[in-house]
Amino acid sequence: MQFKDIVGQRDVINRLTEIIDSGRVSHAQLLLGDERDGSLQLAWAYMQYLCCSHRVHHEQGDLRADSCGECPECKKISQLMHPDLHFVFPNPPNGSPSVSSDDYMAEFLAFLRERKALGTLDDFNRYLDRDIKTTMIRESDAANIVRTLGMKSYEGGWRMLVIWRPSKMNKEAANELLKTLEEPMPQTLILLVDDSTEELLPTIVSRVQQVRLKSEGGERKPENAEYGPLLVDWLRMLFKLKMKELASQVEKMAALGREEQKQFLTYALGVMRDCFLKSAAGLPCSLGSGDEKFDAMFPNMVTVNNIELINDALNDALFAIGRNAYGKIAFMELSFRISKALKKR
């Protein structure tokens, strides 16, 4: 998982890469955000960047840096097969008093790979075909955490642990985790991933560095009525690619003020992100474009095969507009790129 695979969250990502590059990595961090906003994806990409041997830094675009994706460390983490990468997550009982995440690790890793880390806890429990009310993180998991992080790393680098939904810890496990958070061994990274701090012990929250993800879905609502119809009309033109009609549509987009152009592109990014979440992970998607037929059919056009191309095109256009590029040229180039990407679904 690379940062470029995550839709949105660029400000958060850039802040994290700056911290890693500066060597000021906090040993315990809490990533706060809904699974739909990519919180578990961010943890995955974060660890890959941390271990990458050949980090790539960009002079242009909205992403300042990323892992190379090619070095041995990247390949092992991208496949979730790095020996120093560990997970703990809410798991159902199986009749054994010592049941832990290890008993369901194969299913959990398969779930992450299949859903690209975008599934919710409810999704995972349905994946296991278990009652969602019975899943928790128990003291047996806490004992495994202490034992695992107390050993030397296999490859001499970072020991990494992701605790997904620590709010599901029972009291005994949470108290045991406190000891680990207080005195971890050097080069240990513990990433807690949850949607809020409400159910976490205050003593745990006080010992971790909080990183809050941007919830993009809620921020677009005021813009839907204004930009939804414009976006729908433009996307329909891209399927036809009739130059006269497309040129007229581009004129409308370019006629917006520069700040409005940026807002429109930001809105479009959010729409594409929501479409991808629906097509790739089956998550609910309410675009609110004002066109029910479009809302129902278009998400299927945005898939794992083209989301990166679409995301890059929109972000490049945002960058160009921010640098005072001529609107008509920027939007026409964007139109061609999006049209080409949509055909790769």
Give a short overview.
By secondary structure, the chain is of the alpha/beta class. It has helices at 10-22, 39-51, 72-78, 105-115, 121-128, 139-149, 171-182, 202-205, 216-219, 221-240, 243-254, 258-281, 292-297, 307-322, 327-342; strands at 28-32, 56-57, 65-66, 85-88, 159-164, 188-194, 209-212.
Describe this structure in words.
There is one protein chain. The protein is of the alpha/beta class. The protein folds into two domains: 3-214, P-loop containing nucleotide triphosphate hydrolases (Rossmann fold), CATH 3.40.50.300; 218-342. Helices cover 51% and strands 9% of the residues. The protein contains 15 helices and seven strands. The chain has helices at 10-22, 39-51, 72-78, 105-115, 121-128, 139-149, 171-182, 202-205, 216-219, 221-240, 243-254, 258-281, 292-297, 307-322, 327-342, and strands spanning 28-32, 56-57, 65-66, 85-88, 159-164, 188-194, 209-212. It has a five-stranded parallel sheet, with helices on both faces. It has a two-stranded antiparallel sheet with strand order 2-3. α7 links the parallel β5 and β6 (188-194). It is elongated and about 70 Å long.
Count of beta strands: 7
Could you tell me the radius of gyration in angstroms?
A: 22 Å
Model regions low in confidence, pLDDT < 50 over at least 5 residues:
217-225
Secondary-structure element pattern, one letter each = HEHEEHEHHHEHEHEHHHHHHH
User: What's the domain count?
Assistant: 2
* Helical proportion, percent range: 40-55%
Amount of beta strand: 5-15%
Average pLDDT, to the nearest integer?
Answer: 83
User: What's the architecture of the largest domain in CATH terms?
Assistant: 3-Layer(aba) Sandwich
Individual helix count = 15
Derived structural class:
alpha/beta
The first-level CATH class name of the largest domain: Alpha Beta
The name CATH uses for the topology of the largest domain is Rossmann fold
Spatial arrangement of strands, main beta sheet: 4-5-6-1-7
